[in-house]
Amino acid sequence: MKSFEDEIRIDVGAVPSYGGSGYSWIRVTCRNRLLEYKKCSGDFELGKTFVLMEQKWKKKWTEAKLKAELKDKKLASDWCCHCKGHTLDGQISCVDKVFCLKCEPEIENYIAAYHNK
């Protein structure tokens, strides 16, 4: 049986405090669908949450079970207008389109086409 465990992605990040209280976040995605998201107030909570999410989601999945789990989940990020991939690692918005970071070199072509309409 094929395992789809490598398609489960766990990302962590932090939002700095600019006069307020900052926080860390953790999200679990698969095929650009948001499986779970949580804000954490400190490193201990973040670490504990990471382990719990990893235990919950990093398991052997069959294609049928994975499709059923993803069926009603919302998108985790916008789709890139150029390559049609996810923008989980960051995005650039330009000329009414969204681009992933790897497609940044292509933006100049879209700008030129936009101005030549």
**Distance from first to last alpha carbon:** 51 Å
- Strand content is 25-35%
Task: Note the main sheet.
Answer: 3 strands, antiparallel
Please tally the β strands and state the result: 5
Low-confidence stretches: none
Element-by-element helix/strand order: EEEHHEEH
Radius of gyration: 18 Å
Number of helices: 3
Fraction in helix: 25-40%
Q: Which term fits the overall shape?
A: flat
Order of strands in the sheet with most strands:
1-2-3
How many domains comprise the coordinates? 2
Summed over residues and divided by their number, the pLDDT gives a mean of 92
Backbone structural class: alpha+beta
Kindly list the characteristics that best describe this protein:
117 residues, alpha+beta, 2 domains, 3-stranded antiparallel β-sheet, two-stranded antiparallel ribbon, 5 strands, flat
In short:
With 117 residues, the chain is of the alpha+beta class. Helices cover 27% and strands 27% of the residues.
In words, what does this structure look like?
The chain is flat. By secondary structure, the protein is an alpha+beta fold. It has 2 domains: 5-70, no CATH class; 77-117. Strand 2 and strand 3 (33-40) form a beta hairpin. Helix content is 27%, strand content 27%. The protein has helices spanning 43-57, 63-70, 107-115, and strands at 8-15, 23-30, 33-40, 91-94, 97-100.
